[in-house]
Specification:
The structure is a single chain. This protein is of the alpha/beta class and 493 residues long. The protein has two domains: 263 residues, Class I glutamine amidotransferase (GATase) domain (Rossmann fold); 148 residues. Strands 1, 2, 3, 4, 6, 7, 9, 10, 11, 12 and 13 form an eleven-stranded mixed beta sheet that branches. The protein has a two-stranded antiparallel sheet with strand order 5-8. α1 links the parallel β1 and β2. It is globular and about 65 Å long.
Amino acid sequence: MQATQPPILVLWDDSHIWGLMVWRALRALGLPSRLVKGKDIANGGLLGKPCAGGQTAPLLMAPGGNARLKAQALGEAGREAVRQWLRTGGRYLGFCGGAGLALSHARAQDGLHICPWSRGSYPERQQHLISGHARVRVRSCLIDGTDAESRPAALDAPARPDSLRPPLDDAACALVPPRWRGCARAVPPPGRACARRLAPAADAARADEFPSLPVWWPGRFAPTSDAAVSVLARYHCPDRDFWLADLPLRHIPAHVLEAWQALYGVNLSADFLTDQPLMAAGNYGDGRYVLSYSHLETPDSPDANHWLAHLLRELAGLTPQREEVPAWDLDAPAEAAFWPASARGPLRAALGCVRDVLDLAAEHHLFFRRTPWLWGWKAGLPGGTCNNLHTALHTLACLAPSPAALSFWQDCGQRLADLAALFRAGAEGYLLACRLAEALAPTVPDAVDRRGLDNQREAVFGHPMRGGGLIEELLLMVEELIFLSQDEAQPGV
């Protein structure tokens, strides 16, 4: 760990599992980091306050989560502090919701407005529910000379301009790892094309030649013609673990997807993604930003992790000690061993309550194991919030508490334990009622009242858009304990 280097700042508000993933990835790469809240930034947190010697942070990272709630947590003062910091040379890296935070919005209070692009909408609602890895085309520098005769035909300019094929002097190409951007940094001799440049028309049979990057229910850019924004990557085609809602696309034949579109008017083929921008970069004043709807911090995702390490070098001048984020097994023991005995039992019990809910949902085919760190769920069920709580409790049980965390535990520990038990009872009741409604739907479709189910869900899991419920109160307490204990976290994972 580089002791003299000021830490990367990670915006903690409304980041949940995604904030923990970023924090874990930075520790795995051997880089110092600090979780900060919007109110810290509003009070000068980007101007040296959390950094030894008054040094400014090299980078602000904004993880996934709800962009509007992040903007709300920053407040007007915090949003302006970020913009002012960028104007004077700051660096910003946003993933998913953190990318959306940086975009321009209809209402000033909903984002940072450092990128002239806005957030786009999907043609159909279910198209937002994509997850898994996708193969991407990347920004690849090409020769800008006129010696076309010696250039391979596959590299000739397409009929329409391709934003991923700029000339060699394009600065944004440096943000793409050399293994993919089509050429080394050195300018090749006149007439020499970059060795790894792929033709835009490369088909799915050559998909392995494209980087594989993960997306987890991403938003979408609405690009403008503003030349100040450079596209670094575009979707090419789904990879092997790509899902739409709870449907694994690789196990659905293409002719079936075509039939569904003809019969039911729904497009589940993922072709709506092709050539959509996935990662972009630009300048704001003297500062620079990279916005990615791909989660480059995803555990055990080699191409994504390599690109993350490269961005930390190129964007922020940092030196990662390694380029891999190891797998994250949330089934591994989390015994709260560093906590005092009075807290150890309640913490273990709370984690056990959440695991009981996940196991029950899996037994009834409502949830399913997607990765070692993520549960999948049937469309419409509150799997996302359950993942947030499970990940937070597991992380907390693996940390050593700080004195401030122990003091906070004295105030909230009993309430946390009580809420965890209530959550288990309420969640089990709701999920089993959903299973019953599903089982009875063919014969007695109205046996389980839909409105009653919705009310039950809102009491336990909150509203899908507004949040709330038992789970939100639990999550706020657990995440505050993590925040207070961050200085006790050991390097690595």
